[in-house]
Amino acid sequence: MRSHKSIGLPKPRSRWLGDDFLADEIRKRAADKSIAFNFNVQIAEHGDVVNDATVPLPASRKVVTAGRLVIDKVEASPDSACDKLIFNPLVLPKGVGPSADPTLIARPVSYGISLSRRLSN
Predict the structure, then answer these.
(1) Three-state SS for 26?
(2) φ and ψ at 56, to 5 degrees?
(3) What mean pLDDT is predicted for residues 74-87?
(4) Single pTM value for the model
(5) Distance CA 32, CA 50 (A)
(6) Burial 54-87 (b: 16+ CB within 10 A, else e)
(7) How far is it, in rounded angstroms, from Cα 50 to Cα 57?
């Protein structure tokens, strides 16, 4: 789990937070009530810039809810199992290809570096 120092919290607040405060917080929230997130996708149109993450699509573009994630329980993970996982946004299902956005292409390398740093701590 990322420590309070690695996410840049202000020093006065971070003094009293433990290293697992993010995991503790989500466990507490899920115990109180379900946590839900919608996955919204904005649909690009011909001529839109889709290979530069710094250029937003126009606000007029259609937004579709592609799914909903509901978290109603968070299991304790004493062995920090998630710390050994890596997310690769280029592992895609058959029939789906990556965009030409260079940020997407660069992510697997930076995520690999992140994993190696987590494992070396």
Answers:
(1) helix
(2) -70, 150
(3) 71
(4) 0.57
(5) 40
(6) eeeeeeeeeeeeeeeeeeeebeeeeeeeeeeeee
(7) 8
